[in-house]
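INTERNAL AUDIT FORM
Audit reference: QA-55
Scope: verify that the stored structure record matches its stored sequence.
Auditor: D.O.
Record contents follow.
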Amino acid sequence: MKRVLSGIQSSGKLTIGNYIGALKNYVKLQDTHECFFSIVDLHAITVPQKPEDLKEQTEEVAALYFAAGVDPNKSSVFVQSHVPAHAELGWIMTTLSYMGEFERMTQFKDKSGKQDSIGVGLFTYPGLMAADILLYHADLVPVGNDQKQHLELTRDLANRFNQRFGEYLKIPEPYIPEVGARIMSLDDGSNKMSKSNPNPNSYIAMLDEPDVLRKKIKRATTDSGRDVLFDPVNKPEISNLMTIYSYCSTLSIKEIEQEYEGKGYGPFKKDLAEHVVATLEPIQQRYKEIRSSGELNKYLKQGAEQAADVANDTLREIKKKMGFLLPN
């Protein structure tokens, strides 16, 4: 079986964009691949986090993995900081990187432009992301379009290591779903839906109560006119809502267009809200069961042990090839 590695930061609230673009794919992949799924808390601290929030958000993201259908008996789910090899190889990958490579990262440019004071971790974290992937000799890495640049750097670093120290690291390939990998904001169809957006009405959180979901969808920005047509260039807002509708129902985009021909946005939004509620309510119920049962720590401990078995062997071989003096 080919191996898959992916992770989500433990910051902010997971959105329906995370569900459609990541978690649904995790559930599919675990039946055909050997999967390692991480909650990347070391990445989360590249921007300031309150200690109590970091802990709660880490547990929340982990519980939502399982509530969405990731099976701890099929996949290794773990917290990044529970496997220290990530941080150690992250430093090694940083030393193999060049300033210009990190400076070209568009995510750094975007995030640093919104802050008065920029932490060094925000600049260097692509080295840690490369370590996350290379530790597991991942064949495939599910990434959105905004992360393709980081995966290219990971491939470059793996090649650089292999050329200097001998062939060892696997060159990973991106796994990008054709549709649904990029769900856009409810208030601006030109921006990706983000769990870190300060405006809570810009995203649908996976744990939003049904009435909150209905209000957010009712208030969602729509394009001029009233035709429910899929046209991402000229009608980005309604096209985004149609994508969400398609993933939360059994209807294709073409069937949605036919269903609401001549009806306008009002009936469409009302029905969309009910489909989203029906999709998320079972997940929310399972989430509450997991959080109250005490199962979460057991699953994460099991996943961390499985991940560490692979990661520690990889790190030891990397250090051996680089000439580090290893303990007996």
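Auditor finding: record pair retrieved intact. The chain is about 55% helix and 10% strand.
Action required: none
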